[in-house]
């Protein structure tokens, strides 16, 4: 970046954020889009973590919100999956970004949807709704996931079928990926459900767990704390309801400080 460009951004504290370049933008629906941006060499994170990202406002002040990094920790670029809220302070502007635009990237990634917060197990579930799939887009592209688990099941529930496009495209891409394809083969399973449109599997993931249909569809035994680990990401209500079902099955919630059988993180939006 030229010194002139840096001089135009006097309000970005270099201790808190760096200025990165948008590399590509893809809109899936009128509510969802993804974008990729440059990653500074100094930016280190664990797959599944979130970071503050944002834009400079017209008055020169930064506006930052928490976003899960959707790319894995080995990727040279960073990827984010975002909702578009028409009157959202950040997403109303963020949805208009174009390749070449500046974006602010916080310096302190953190989060609990990481392998370090789970005790060893055989089967990893990742339960997501809407943009809650974002951290799992990172975790399912990380080789560590397949080193640690024999079976990796990522569920994604959306209101409409077209909102599943990002995760469907990602999982298909992974299976055909020359680098990761061999590693995910026979391990990675994708379970998509829709609540407000016709789809082969209809309904909330919580209802599908409770009725046993999810286990039946996947051909796996019911949740078992001896073998199963889980990560949950979605709205507060979705997390609460899903966590209650895991609690009932005997799994306990973990954290970075105290790893256990499942971890939660709210899907960020704004
Ligand atoms: P539903 O259509 O029945 O509300 P949202 O876009 O509102 O975040 O929702 C994303 C998906 O999460 C929707 O399919 C929605 O189902 C589902 N969902 C919302 N609340 C819950 C909950 N408490 N438990 C499980 N799934 C939920």
TrEMBL record:
GO terms for biological process: cellular response to oxidative stress; heme catabolic process. It holds the Pfam family FAD_binding_6. It catalyses: 2 reduced [2Fe-2S]-[ferredoxin] + NADP(+) + H(+) = 2 oxidized [2Fe-2S]-[ferredoxin] + NADPH. Its cofactor is FAD. GO terms for molecular function: ferredoxin-NADP+ reductase activity; nucleotide binding. SUPFAM superfamilies: Ferredoxin reductase-like, C-terminal NADP-linked domain, Riboflavin synthase domain-like. CDD domains: FNR1 (cd06195). InterPro entries: Cbr1-like_FAD-bd_dom, FAD-bd_FR_type, FNR_bac, FNR_nucleotide-bd, FNR_type-1, OxRdtase_FAD/NAD-bd, Riboflavin_synthase-like_b-brl. The keyword Nucleotide-binding applies. Residues 12-116 form the FAD-binding FR-type domain. Its EC number is 1.18.1.2. Keywords: FAD, Flavoprotein, NADP, Nucleotide-binding, Oxidoreductase. It comes from Parvularcula mediterranea. It comes from the Bacteria. Belongs to the ferredoxin--NADP reductase type 1 family. This is ferredoxin--NADP(+) reductase. PANTHER family: FLAVODOXIN_FERREDOXIN--NADP REDUCTASE (PTHR47878:SF1), OXIDOREDUCTASE FAD/NAD(P)-BINDING DOMAIN PROTEIN (PTHR47878).
């Amino acid at each position: 970046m030229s010194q002139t460009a840096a001089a135009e951004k006097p309000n970005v504290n270099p201790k808190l954020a760096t200025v990165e370049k948008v590399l590509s933008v893809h809109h899936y629906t009128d509510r969802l889009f993804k974008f990729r941006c440059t990653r500074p060499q100094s930016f280190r994170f664990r797959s599944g973590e979130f970071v503050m990202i944002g834009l400079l406002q017209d008055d020169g002040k930064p506006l930052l919100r928490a976003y899960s990094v959707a790319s894995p920790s080995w990727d040279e670029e960073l990827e984010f999956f975002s909702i578009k809220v028409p009157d959202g302070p950040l997403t109303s502007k963020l949805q208009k970004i174009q390749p070449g635009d500046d974006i602010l990237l916080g310096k302190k990634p953190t989060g609990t949807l990481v392998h370090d917060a789970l005790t060893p197990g055989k089967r990893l579930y990742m339960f997501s709704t809407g943009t809650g799939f974002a951290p799992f887009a990172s975790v399912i592209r990380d080789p560590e996931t397949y080193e640690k688990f024999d079976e990796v099941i990522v569920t994604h529930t959306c209101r409409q079928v077209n909102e599943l496009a990002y995760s469907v495209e990602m999982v298909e891409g992974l299976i055909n990926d020359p680098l990761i394809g061999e590693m995910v083969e026979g391990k990675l399973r994708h379970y998509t459900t829709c609540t407000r449109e016709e789809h082969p599997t209809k309904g909330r993931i919580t209802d599908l767990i409770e009725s046993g249909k999810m286990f039946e569809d996947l051909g796996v035994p019911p949740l078992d704390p001896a073998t199963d680990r889980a990560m949950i990401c979605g709205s507060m209500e979705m997390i609460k309801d899903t966590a209650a079902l895991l609690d009932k099955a005997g799994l306990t919630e973990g954290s970075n400080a105290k790893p256990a059988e499942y971890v939660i993180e709210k899907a960020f939006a704004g």
